[in-house]
Write a structure and sequence with these properties.
By secondary structure, this protein is an alpha+beta fold. The protein contains nine helices and eleven strands. The chain folds into two domains: 121 residues, Yope Regulator, Chain: A (2-Layer Sandwich), CATH 3.30.1460; 117 residues, Trna Endonuclease, Chain: A, domain 1 (3-Layer(aba) Sandwich), CATH 3.40.1350.10. It has a six-stranded antiparallel beta sheet with strand order 1-2-3-4-6-5. A hairpin with a 2-residue loop joins strand 5 and strand 6. Helix 7 runs parallel beside helix 8. The longest helix is centred in the middle third of the chain and has 16 residues.
């Protein structure tokens, strides 16, 4: 197939091809990473007449230099990006199959997906922060199932503003709050005080993303209101199982 004629026509004569090995051509086009490197895009024929667009695993390799997709949550984010852009992954390579007449828009779609995947390293802190509660719940599902966790629990039926992230059904119910920031910490403190005022039988557990990042006043408030605190997710992962064993 004459990719070059197709792409020159569809890219307004601003594209070229370089044969990397028999039947595999690298696209030379004005599509760049933010550091100035050209996006790695390769084209090859498929038996059904379509064209396969591939990066030959270069995108994830570049990403791995500064950002590890090393948790189930990060992997889900990666797969969400690929799915939204109709890209699939096979053994690290990103792939998109397209009819020849749609080659140009498919290449642009592919390049956009590569840019989004590559940008994961730029907002890695935001990704980690957004994954705090998800990681917490995932740990609970995997390690604390025996204590019958119920997510999004409302101890006072007519107070939907007082939500417990997870309730555990043990001798004295445990209400667990995931406090990823100061707002969630303050809400946990208010909720604990309201539940105490309602004379509910419970023990409160607060898992912080970063307890030390709170102001002294907020640390004092939550310490006064909560029965047990874990200062970080790692602290919870290390000590939660023995804590729940004792509580039960």
């Amino acid at each position: 197939m004459n990719y070059l004629d197709l792409l020159k026509d569809q890219f307004n004569n601003r594209a070229g091809l370089r044969e990397k090995r028999p039947g595999v051509f690298q696209l030379i086009a004005p599509l760049y990473h933010e550091d100035g490197d050209m996006v790695d895009i390769y084209l090859l024929d498929l038996p059904d007449g379509r064209v396969r667009i591939s990066d030959y695993a270069m995108t994830l390799m570049r990403l791995s230099y500064s950002y590890a997709v090393d948790t189930p949550n990060k992997e889900r984010i990666l797969q969400k990006i690929l799915t939204e852009n109709k890209i699939r992954e096979e053994e690290g390579s990103l792939l998109l199959d397209t009819p020849p007449e749609s080659l140009c828009p498919a290449v642009l779609q592919f390049a956009q997906a590569v840019a989004k995947v590559s940008s994961m390293r730029l907002y890695r802190r935001e990704v980690v922060e957004s994954l705090f509660l998800e990681s917490l719940l995932e740990f609970i599902d995997e390690n604390l199932r025996d204590y019958r966790p119920h997510k999004k629990f409302y101890p006072i039926p007519d107070r939907d503003d007082l939500e417990v992230d997870v309730q555990f059904e043990i001798r004295t119910p445990i209400y667990l709050f995931g406090a990823k920031d100061v707002t969630r910490t303050r809400l946990a403190a208010i909720s604990c005080l309201e539940f105490q005022r309602a004379r509910l039988p419970f023990k409160s557990v607060v898992v912080h993303e970063d307890f030390e990042n709170l102001s002294k006043k907020d640390r004092n408030r939550i310490t006064s209101a909560a029965d047990k605190q874990f200062t970080s997710l790692e602290d919870f992962k290390t000590n939660a199982v023995p804590f729940f064993q004792r509580a039960a």
